[in-house]
Amino acid sequence: MLPVGGALETSGGAALLADQILRLADHSPAWAMLTILITATMLLSGVINNAATAVLMAPIGIGIATGMGYSISGNHVLWAWILY
Prior knowledge:
Largest sheet: none
């Protein structure tokens, strides 16, 4: 599943999905965007296993955060994934 996640990121698919979500929820607060991302992740997790879901949704979540102007660098991203 890691190659699929990498392909989603390198092909621009993750950016396309993140842009569509950002356009759909234009000017929404961060908590609303997080709710949308978590809901999509939960729905996808019902179809494929949890590890594959994390691999597929991570680039989309990073794209959403970047599109909203949040920094994705630093240890806080690492801790967010460890604690999740």
